[in-house]
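[09:14] KT: can someone run the structure on this one? pasting the chain below
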Amino acid sequence: VRALRRRLEPHGPDHAQPTRCFALSLIDGLANAEETVVSAIAWALEGIPLVGGSAGDDLTFRDAVLLHGGAIHRNAAVLLLVESDFPVQIFKSDNFEPTDVKFVVTASDGESRTVYELNAEPAAREYAMAVGLDPERLTPMSFAAYPLAVKVGGEYFCRSIRRLNADGSLSFFCAIDEGVVLTLAEPRDIVASTRAELARLDRALGGVDLIIGFECVLRRLDAESRQVRQGIADLYRRYDMVGFETYGEQYRAMHLNQTLTGIAIGKRPADERLASEGPAEATPAPPALP
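[09:31] RB: done, structure tokens below
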């Protein structure tokens, strides 16, 4: 990261302005290393905003790969640092609301991201009972419809379930430690929430030219189950969004789930816009997750 920053900042560290520079991370989504990698990268970036996503394999959970330098890489991460003549702004958008249903993680393996017990009961059974489903018939569609979230600094961040295991445990897309309190969440209108966030970016930048987005695969499944996938696709075309479906999303120093993160690039050169309108709207940094 320091070597990349030296190439990006030929005139010193103050040259890399957060309103014109950003970093993109692409990480193997099956290596279970996002929290460590993203935390280290964000620390070394020293204020350059970071977004990205975890590479997946269409929910088979066998082999996620990255491409770099014309070669295939596994258990790897790729980092890109970008400087633009146009204003940029990173963002995140989700579509869930917390409920009053709580789960305490009472047995887990943080390294494998596996939760064995919730509220001192078998994890899958306790979760299924809370949402009114058969514990033996839990699927990715179930997890997309009934997400779990953790509260940090007064804000909720999604912690999505990856799969049901044969022993009744649940594997997650994020690290889950014993003692963590998980809150059952319910989805909001995904089209309305996404539309509002993209419209905000459009106003903040004085017009959006391009958005590079990283969307959790569970958002797609949820949109398909509610038959609103076409509405989401129409929004992405309207705002010229390109990107990836992911097994997890990165935003600053955090690894998230069931979220849309990305970088929006404005239409007008930054110097021209700043001269006529002042700086782009700033987004406060969220609290770091454990």
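[09:33] KT: thanks! The CA atoms of residues 94 and 259 lie 5 Å apart.
[09:34] RB: yep, looked fine to me
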